[in-house]
Amino acid sequence: MEAIHITLPQKSRAVRLIDITQPSAIALATAAVRHHPVLVQLPTVFALLAAPTSEGARQLDNCKMRLAGKNYGTAIGSLHKFLAQAQPASLPASFNTARHFSNMEGAFIRLQFRQRHCQSQTLRNGTHQGLLLSGAFRELFISIENAFEDYPSDDMWSGNNYGAPLCTSCNISGDPGGSIVSLDKAMEFARQRKIPFIITTKNAACEKGSYPIFGFSHEGVHLHRRGPGMERFAGRIPASLQRWQA
Predict the structure, then answer these.
(1) How many Cα neighbours within 13 Å face the side chain of 109?
(2) For the chain, what is the HEC assignment?
(3) Residue 88's pLDDT is what?
(4) How far apart are the C-alpha atoms of 196 and 143, rounded to whole Å?
(5) What distance, in Å, lies between the first and last C-alpha atoms of the chain?
(6) What is the pLDDT of residue 13?
């Protein structure tokens, strides 16, 4: 596997840049995520992936110097497995199948995974959110999800493991500069946090920033964070469900 080696000045070490389309990139990231967070360039933002376990969450806490009161989302591998975690009758009657949700590529989807009293690193009032992407990114997420298919029960999921990789913005928690969207800043973050490589892409979007978050419930769809591609989603979600338009 070919990799680009860039040497950073003073007290630095080489940072490997590995294009996600290279033959061994997905296998390398899948193996590495068992031991430490993996830094990935998504189309609009740089992100960190980690194992879907309490240990993976702890690693992200350390890497991001995580502030209290935050929860981790995941990067969706199998859309069917993601939707199977949803509480019965918690989805809108007119938007509740994998075919419907496949239109949500490029956004975080927030669902009611557990009862409302459940709180953990990944659950807030029982809800959990997953990022849906396509192409090589989705292949990577599926590969990691499959690798954790049979891992031991983890209290983080409150009785029913979910195997998609934890996914969060690449930055120090609470950084006033927000999420990292430039390669030079991502490389500096990797050097400082001792992350050995970055999975990169040539499929970068013109509009940068953290992905929007849409919360689905029986009564409709709420917008929890704006982000790139908002215009597209206004046409993909039935107007009758768009509670943020009210």
Answers:
(1) 30
(2) CCCEEEECCCCCCEEEEEECCCCCHHHHHHHHCCCCCEEEECCCCEEEEECCCHHHHHHHHHHHCCCCCCCCEEECCCHHHHHHCCCCCCCCCCCCCHHHHHHHCCEEEEEECCCCCCCCCCCECCEEEEEECCHHHHHHHHHHHHHCCCCCCCHHHCCCCCCCCEEEECCCCCCCCCCCCCHHHHHHHHHHHCCCEEEECCCCCCCCCCCCEEEEECCEEEEEECCCCHHHHHHHCCHHHEHHHC
(3) 86
(4) 20
(5) 51
(6) 63
Q: Rounded to an integer, what is the distance from CA 221 to the centroid of its chain?
A: 20
Tens-place pLDDT, residues 113-157: 999 999 999 999 999 999 999 999 999 999 999 999 999 999 999
pLDDT tens digits, 50-107: 999 999 999 999 999 999 888 999 999 999 999 999 998 899 999 999 999 999 999 9
Buried b (16+ CB within 10 A) or exposed e, 202-229: eeeeeebbbbbbbbbbeebbbbeeebbb
- Those residues with Cβ within 8 angstroms of residue 72's Cβ, 6 or more apart along the chain or in another chain: 50, 57, 60, 121, 122, 166, 167, 168
> Rounded CA gap, 168 and 175, in Å?
14
